[in-house]
Design brief:
The chain has 230 residues and is an alpha/beta fold. The chain is built from 5 helices and 6 strands; from the N terminus they run βαβαβααβαββ. The N terminus and C terminus are likely disordered. Pfam families: His_Phos_1.
Length: 230
């Protein structure tokens, strides 16, 4: 797939058109007692703490001073994203739209206990899949993730012209999109992603021009070990 054009993160546009904000919300904490990389596997739902994060995010979006107001809520089809979107939509009296393009990134280690610093990189059986971190060779290419996420964001922007949309997605897709719009390279250290649980990455558009990128953590800063995951 041809990589999408890279808009400039600081582009203020031509001064014309309505201001629209697309908030990319990462889902809350997932119940995962065995510590597997769950990826797109079904059946992984929010933990009790995760539901609390979703309610906190819902209250944050519903604040009267939170302008522009949210008029559109869309989520990844995965259970944890739908559960995170539910209190937001309910609190605002909106329906939840589903966009497959917001889904978690594909990963060949799905279902395995595999994480940064756990020694998996030392196993010869994994070396072939880890041969190219630029693509990456173990999963969905970063350029494809960025392209589909940008498509989902543009659709949400068009649905919420002059107001705000909330797109509930997953850590790697959100972070890849942010790298893309800010013109940064895709290769990165997963431990340094600014995309904590229930965090909000906000894209502000003037017309169709990206004017600013913001970040907030309504549920508080991610604790140790919480930045990783899906």
């Amino acid at each position: 797939m041809t990589p999408p054009d890279r808009p400039r993160g600081a582009d203020t546009g031509d001064g014309l058109g309505e201001t629209t904000v697309v908030h990319l919300l990462r889902h809350g904490e997932v119940f995962n007692p065995t510590g597997v990389l769950y990826g797109r596997l079904p059946g992984f739902h929010l933990s009790e703490a995760g539901h609390g994060m979703a309610r906190t995010a819902a209250a944050w979006f519903a604040e009267p001073a939170r302008l522009p107001a949210v008029t559109h809520v869309v989520a990844s089809p995965l259970q944890r994203a739908q559960e995170t979107a539910a209190p937001i939509a309910a609190g605002l009296g909106l329906d939840i739209a589903t966009d497959e393009r917001l889904i978690e990134a594909g990963n060949q280690f799905e279902g395995q206990a595999f994480g940064v610093g756990d020694g998996a990189l030392k196993h010869p059986s994994n070396w072939w899949r880890l041969r190219n971190p630029w693509t990456p060779s173990w999963g969905e290419p970063y350029a494809e993730i960025a392209a589909r996420m940008l498509g989902a964001v543009h659709a949400a922007r068009d649905a919420a012209r002059g107001s705000a949309a909330v797109c509930v997605s997953h850590q790697l897709p959100i972070w890849t999109l942010r790298l893309h719009v800010e013109g940064r390279r895709y290769l990165h250290d997963p431990r340094k992603r600014q995309c904590g649980l229930a965090s909000v990455t906000s894209l502000t558009y003037v017309g169709e021009h990206l004017a600013a990128v913001g970040y907030a953590e309504p549920a508080g800063p991610a604790g140790k070990g919480q930045v990783g995951g899906a």
